[in-house]
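pinned: reference chain
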Amino acid sequence: MKNYWYLFYRPSAFWEQNKVIKSKWAIFLLLLNAGFTSVGFYGVVLTLALGFFLYGFMMLGDVSETSLLFIPLSFLVLFLISWLIAFIISYVLGFSTKTVSKWIGGKSHMLQDHRKAYLFSMLTYLPSNIALLIVAVLSTILFLQNPEQVYVERDFTFLPVLIGIWIILHIVASIRSIFVWCISIGRAEEMSAWKGFLAIIVTIIGLWIILMSVILILSIASVPFSS
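pinned: its structure tokens
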């Protein structure tokens, strides 16, 4: 991505410079970042919790020390799952904002542009994702080197650091992400950022109504099976 920091003070310029992406690796990294943004914090906490419980079973003699290798392996699985989630979400949100933009006067209606608009907005979370990943990796190394300190002494020093850094950066990124998404949709559809914001709001409300309707239908359909 050219001039990454433009996202934080010149998002329109960032869109113009990066709206054409020819590299598949760039798209892959955009999806990876978006996916990790969605599941990163919770996935990291669950992964570290997995290591904690595995060590407990190891102390009881139920599993061998090699089972701790599941910790780095679970990180790899986390990345793969997050990429798949981002891939699906980018198409769902891209198609939805494209459709709404067409209703309110957009001119482009290109699905790939709306996918990029969403993925660019997720790039604002890159600093918080990097901070989270660094702290998670360091915490994992600390645990693997001296698990007794964590398991026996209940020394969770890394957790307040992880949570504190992530919350501060995540709040800043969340606020900026909305601006970037609105402006990117506006530039893609040759309309104002306010209409881009309207497209996002209508999309979120519409998807929420659809989700709630599906849950209601499934709950009603499951009643005969529960009786």
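why pinned: The chain is about 80% helix and 0% strand. The chain has a mean pLDDT of 82.
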